[in-house]
Amino acid sequence: MRTIPDDLCRRYVAEGWWRSETIGSLLADRLAAAPDVEFVVHSDVRPWSGTFGDVELVARRLAAGLSARGVGAGDVVAFQLPNWMEAAATFWASSFIGATVVPIVHFYGRKELTHILAAAQPKVFITAERFGRLVYEPDVSADVPVVGVVGRDFDDLLADEPMAGTIATDPAAPALIAFTSGTTSAPKGVVHSHLTLGFEARQLVGRNSGDNKKNLTATPVGHFIGMVGAFFIPVMQGLSVHLADVWDPGRALALMESDGLAVGGGPPYFVTSLLDHPDFTPAHLANVKQVGLGGSVVPAAVTRRIADLGIMVFRAYGSTEHPSITASRNEAPEDKRLLTDGCALPGVEIRLAEDGEILSRGPDLCLGYLDQALTDTVFDSDGWYHTGDVGVLDADGYLTVTDRKADLIIRGGENISAMEVEEVLLGLPAVAEAIVVAAPDERLGERVAAVLRIRPEALMPSLEQVRAHFEAEGVARQKWPELLREVEDYPRTASGKVQKNVIRETLSGGV
């Protein structure tokens, strides 16, 4: 784990940012205060409707069942589920027994899942028998002691009598391990404690305090922020939960009419796909009052388009490592809300290194990575996180992210490692060298572009052949290249290093 200076720890405690609460105790208190709030899953394959109390009962029966199987404080519970009720029950149950939860996005393939289970070493793995491209493969989790499969034997893990109360654990201990793609070829495990996660929840509640709408959550709950946004923040606020396990803008618009739901924001794609849908009407517009955009590249053209419709829009900046770094408040000048990523949030500090890299620290900054070598690379002894992003600060303290030092593609809010995609491409016999960069995309912010140097006498593979190769390798679909280019050679530095920035600029110019 990283070094957190003593003076920062004392300050976070003195300011009330770190409190002697666990995620389990926070959830238990808030659930007890709002047992009748509705919880609905809008799904074609596994619809569900009930209340917080109904879900908590399942969670407490699961907690008792896991406890009976020797699972307790400090153990790791992983789940790979769509946006279903059982995902909430697993998160809540894990929190009640003081376990460390590992959410895994449901569209991760065999390759990613194998890596995550090996790195996290869970004692429990909860998954689905089948959903879309997700298919339960017993051999992948063969070394996990307790496995439950929704649609097959998940209910066998539920005890007859629910567990009462919560299991005490150290608030400074790990509460969550979130796996995210980055500059490493495999997903990296980001560790958050009860202290950091609790502060993040209060931070988000404070920002959303005026938002009492019934929001539809389609962001995968296997994402750290999706799980927190779906199963933690609404409980803290006593607001209903409405989940969609598939993002269908047409159905989302129908639910806005039939159930009075709203879509509060997220990556730009979730908003632009609604605006672009033929069913979008002025009646839908009347139900969209405010939109917060983040989790992906946010083009100024998108924020301007939304604002021109009369919607209050703002941008925010953060990451799995440091979830809430900057954002703009509603009262901020319009140009700040639309054209910058906001200013530092309460408790957060930001500064720029000499090369423009953004450094941040605050009470919601993670403990580090499972990989200590990686932790030592990006966190310094003064508590600063070296984000790998480059930005500028204006005279009013508003940050604008301008570039990334990290070799990362953010497609619709999904982090994709260029290095990982390059490694898979090199498995094609015809490919001598592969360079992967982000190409701009109006809907998703960025998409995966592969620029290939082909071996002599070999033929350039088609996009269909490349995608078939990725599918055979078990790589998640969002990582598949969407644009292919062939080159005789790449632009290089004097030392022979490929100039990816030149390639990105060429693709951005449509050449």
What does this structure look like?
- With 511 residues, this protein is α/β, with parallel strands linked by helices.
- Among the domains are: 18-197 and 221-237, Rossmann fold (3-Layer(aba) Sandwich); 408-508, GMP Synthetase, Chain A, domain 3.
- Helix content is 31%, strand content 25%.
- It is built from 17 helices and 28 strands.
- Strands 2-1-12-11-13 form a 5-stranded mixed β-sheet. A 5-stranded mixed β-sheet has the order 14-15-16-17-18.
- Strand 16 and strand 17 (326-327) form a beta hairpin.
- The two termini are 45 Å apart.
Which terms would index this structure?
GMP Synthetase, Chain A, domain 3, Rossmann fold, alpha/beta, 511 residues
Summarize the structure.
This protein has 511 residues and is an alpha/beta fold. The chain has 17 helices and 28 strands. Among the domains are: 18-197 and 221-237, ANL, N-terminal domain (Rossmann fold, 3-Layer(aba) Sandwich); 408-508, ANL, C-terminal domain (GMP Synthetase, Chain A, domain 3), CATH 3.30.300.30.
User: Order of strands across the widest beta sheet?
Assistant: 2-1-12-11-13
* Shape assignment: globular
Bin the helical content.
25-40%
CATH class of the domain at 18-197 and 221-237: Alpha Beta
The CATH architecture classification of the domain at 18-197 and 221-237 is 3-Layer(aba) Sandwich
Proportion of β residues?
25-35%
User: What would you give as the CATH superfamily of the domain at 18-197 and 221-237?
Assistant: ANL, N-terminal domain
pLDDT under 50 segments (min length 5)?
none
User: How much is the average pLDDT?
Assistant: 91
Say how many strands there are: 28
